[in-house]
Amino acid sequence: MLDFEIEAGDLQRLADELGAMPNEVRAAYNRALTRTAATLRKLSSKGLQSHLGLARAAAVRRRLKSLRIRGQGGMGSVRLWYGLNDLPVSEFRGRTTPRSGGAAYSGPAGSHRFDRAWIGASRYARKRTILQRVRESRYPIREAQLPIKDKADVFVEDEVFVKLNDIFWQHFSRDLERRVDYMRSR
To answer: Is the pTM above the cut of 0.85?
Structure first.
């Protein structure tokens, strides 16, 4: 979960500089929050796909959610949620190889060895993947999964979170300036 707070004093200072009305500030703030969340989702989706070595960005996009929280006076907040559960091997670029007593994966996500596993066709991605038995019995069978939480946390904190304030203020100041200019021209 990625939370950030905006100082009300900074918002008011920019509004005073531009001579903006409170309703213009509120509208610009809400639009800037929405655009910031969309920009961060896009940065996260593209960045995590390459950082984790995923074959498709859809695997990450399904796990990124933005939640809008309405606040007092129309000034709300946005919360980004990252689903960092393990992903199936078929979602990653890389190579699967049979080993004695199991199978192995090697690729951009690292090297992992799975005991009592074999290589088979995935139900979802229509490509070769690593399958494992869940219990000692013959069935059920599940696809082996690779952990992504540690690598994804590092990427989000180092690459996405540091850009958050700059992105918000860029959207907010640009939107507020244009709203004020538009109202003055009318």
So the answer is: no
Omega prior to 140 cis, within 30 of 0:
yes
Rounded Cα–Cα distance for residues 99 and 83 (Å)? 31
- Would you state the structure tokens that stand for residue 94, as one six-digit string? 């890389």
Kindly list the distances between the CA atom of residue 69 and the CA atoms of 6, 62, 74, 78, in Å, as whole numbers in the listed order. 14, 20, 10, 6
The token pair that represents 173 in the structure block: 């100041």
Q: Is the dihedral angle over the CA atoms 32, 34, 36, 42 positive or is it negative?
A: negative
- DSSP symbol at 83: -
**72-90 pLDDT tens trace:** 666 777 888 899 999 999 9
CA distance 57 to 138: 34
The runs of H, that is alpha helices, within 53-163 are: 58-61, 149-155
8 Å CB contact between 111 and 92: no
